[in-house]
Amino acid sequence: MDDRRRVRAALRAVYGAPPAESIDWWSLRSRILDAAGLNGHARKRSLWDRTLWRRALIPVTCAATIVMALAIADTRSDVTSSIASSLASTAADSTDVTAWLRAASAGGAVPQRELDPLPDASAWLGAALTATSD
Amino acid sequence: MKLKPIATPASPRPDPLDERALLELVRQRDASAFDELVRRYLRRAFAVAYHVMHHREDAEDLVQETFITVLEQIDRFDADRAFAPWFFRILVNRGLNARKSRTVRQTEQVPADAAGGEGPPDGVAERRELAERVRAAVDQLPERQRLILRLSELEGFTSVEIADILDLSQGTVRWYLHEARNALRITLAPLAREVRNG
User: Fold this and answer.
1) Maximum CA pair distance of chain A?
2) What is the pLDDT, as a whole number, of residue B35?
């Protein structure tokens, strides 16, 4: 064996790549094709990619949070006021109902002063009975 | 990155030897052309990657990253030039950068009798001694010189190709090779005499 071959053999003994039969070439090839976006798989994103996306999302998320907070606050005030007004009307209705019940149990009519006044009732009735030009 | 679905048999396929046409299809994001490119270069890419990374899993990762980089940068490749040097330049540069920037896995120890039929005919002990001497001699060489030696002696790259891959002049590569071989000859000389004297 000449020097050149001896050097090469020694190098292979120490630094030679693993034998080709010991490597799963099919899996390695599939891995590469998958990573390239083949077979419907997306390329695996690096941590750096993810970080950049997150950075871009920060202002958007902040803005969305503020808008949602304002919307929630607005909705709450609407709900509060509508509950308050419905409670008030319920109280008025219950006054009427109480008066009607009392009158019914007594066998008489409800006095007008105990009911809510209907000041425009006669005006509404007049308008309804008036014939229109068309 | 979206690739076109695998071409149907009716699609025009490049001549097996026509790498230029194959690369043009890869440039158009043709999936089966990319598959063919991977098929052609996979084994040699792994061998070179192993010489850079000194570890099987690191070498596999490097090969994968290199093919993805090739796909991403194929538009920048000059079609009038040879593909292989461009490909291996990407692979070697990425590998050397990875070695610099992070701790890679421990170098795998190849068994001393891995030389197979080309090793000295005598026993395992002698081969082990030979391996130790070679390792000692090669480890004293600078990283780049070691790589040049391995690419030349083990993978059969010419000094012109190595110069292109490592972006060095051919004279520098030849000089590095000459020095590295001399160092190994000196290291192995006593052992060679012992073998000759029986």
Assistant:
1) 133
2) 92
Residue contacts between A and B (CB atoms, under 8 Å): 119
Amino acid at the residue B55: H
- Summary mean pLDDT of chain A: 71
Cβ contacts of B185 within 8 Å, gap of 6 or more = A3, A7
Tokens describing residue B20: 């230029």
How far out from the chain centre does Cα B97 lie? Answer: 15
Ranges assigned E (strand) in B58-169: none
Token pair listed for B62? 């490097």
In the stretch 59-78 of chain A, residues with CB closer than 8 A to chain B read: none
Helix (H) or strand (E) holding B110, with range, is none
Q: pLDDT tens for residues B95-123? A: 999 888 765 555 555 554 444 444 445 56
In this predicted model, which residue has the larger pLDDT, B76 or B136? B76
Minimal C-alpha gap between A41 and chain B (Å): 10
Return the residue in A4, A11, A31, A33 with the most chain B beta carbons within 10 A, the one to mutate for interface testing. Answer: A11
Q: Please report, as a single letter, which amino acid is at residue A14.
A: V
Distance of CA A38 to the CA centre of its chain: 34
Give, in order, the Cα–Cα distances in Å from B149 to each of A108, B62, B104, B125, B153.
119, 20, 21, 25, 6
- Min Cα distance A85 → chain B (Å) is 59
Give me the architecture of the B19-101 domain, per CATH: Orthogonal Bundle (1.10)
Average pLDDT over residues B11-22: 66
Tokens of B152: 């030349």
Question: Which residues of B are less than 8 Å from A33 in CB distance?
Answer: 31, 34-35, 38
Q: Rounded to an integer, what is the distance from CA A18 to the centroid of its chain? A: 54
The topology under which CATH files domain B112-197 is Arc Repressor Mutant, subunit A (1.10.10)
User: Please, are residues B115 and B146 in contact by the beta-carbon 8 Å criterion?
Assistant: no
**Is there a contact between B83 and B77 (Cβ–Cβ < 8 Å)?**
yes
